[in-house]
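It is worth pausing here to work through a concrete case rather than discussing structure prediction in the abstract. The textbook approach is simple: state the sequence, then state the predicted structure, then interpret. We follow exactly that order.
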Amino acid sequence: MADENLEQEHSYSDEELQYVYENRRYVGTKETVGFVLWDAAQSFNINTFSTRFITNIVKIDLGYQTVAKTINSIWDIVNDVFTAAIVEKTRTRWGKFRPYLMGLAGPGMILTLLYWFMPVFFGGKTAMDMGKFVFYLAGEIIREGVGTFQGIARTGLLATITPHPVDRTRLITIANFASGTFGEKLPEQIMTVILDLIDNKKIKTTKFTTAQQMLIAFVGMGSFCTVISSGMSFWFFLNSKERIMQSIKTPSVMASLKSIANNKPMLLLTLSDFLSAFGIGGSKQDYYIDVLHFGSMTMLAGIPAAPLSPVSFSYVPWLRRHFSSRLLYILSHYINNFLLVFVFLFGSIGFNSKTFKGGLYRKVLPMFFAMALWEVIWTLFYGLRSVIGTELYNEAMDYCEWKNGYRTEAMTSVAKGMASKVAGSVSGVVSTALKKMIGYDQDAYTSGVEQPDYVKFYLFAMFTIVPAVTGALGIVPMLFYDLNGKKKETMYAELLERRKKASQIASEGDSEALKQFAEEQIHQK
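Step two, the predicted structure:
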């Protein structure tokens, strides 16, 4: 049935539609606290240094890394399909998604600990050592398989934890506000300071070399964050609930695929992610550490913007009421690309393209002011960015239920993720290969040797102008996103009415009536 017919199926008064925006709460205080801890656990890590860990500490050859990324990317795409099919057909008394989150929490923690202990297991081995490479590759493949189940279940749980859009927005906003206010990046910041002190020879000891100090820092901090974040997540899984009922009859694979094909909002979000993922570039940490030798720039440049982080959440509800989801999504997700163009132009002042000498990008003080301004402007959109992407995904899943009479979170999240994974895998492989092509020295960091001038410029360009230009195409699909205004209000009015009736039937214990009601919803659509 066409979208226009769906909108006209029922006529709701303005008073009835306002029900959508009432402050309805289903998730209690204990579960809300757990959700906040779970959200914080997602960023309680030092994963931002994972590439540097593998390249400079574990020291796996960049060519080997390219091979591993290629193999793991193919596996990532293949395992998504059957994993989604398994999760989609799961029906237990604990829910559809919680069993996977609880059951895989322990194995996931152990696999991550093995990852951080690699330099201990393979100390003294060369970058071309095949045993080390095989262990790394096998670990990545297994972690990817476990991570796929966890990722699908994580996305699905967020979409089903509450039936009311206002309650869901409240949860997301509180969690992101708490993370931004109370230091979600604290482990990363502590690690940055430690590495800066070691890199600049500020930690003096005769017992450990520079390389050994870095190894201890990575293994210690990586393991600590893994255990703490796993504990916070598991506590929430035990105390959470899935409140949106799944259809009694599990949808077939074809029905799941159909629900994706006729979901225009999800298709547009997927295409946007796909095009954005083609953004090719390097990392900010590589630039700060290898060019400026000042990894703490990340933390210091963010100080002027820090007070704005919690404030940025305060006006999100107002923005949501007065501007379309399309505009807010584009602004929050692509302001970074726009700003990085100006960072590149500023840093290139005084640069000699023939000799690769000069340029403000090599000076700490000018770049501190440039990056501090970038952080301030970007942070003004932080609250919106933290909420709008998740909300648009959940709205698209609600649209699936509204249009088809059933939900397919697992297959939909995989289809959406697969598109961006294909593009992201290509860009990831290319980025790693480019790093090798420009002559990046993997031993320079731990031996105190400077990277060549041309390598430093390319690291700067790969952090700024290259991803800004290559990732901008993602804006185009979102220009056609139209789940706004009356259409969205009508959708939620009907969904809330339908869910209320299903809940009443379920409370009466009449399974046959509930099954018949579910079938009626599917056939109506």
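Step three, interpretation. The longest helix spans residues 130-160. The chain has two domains: 24-483, 484-525.
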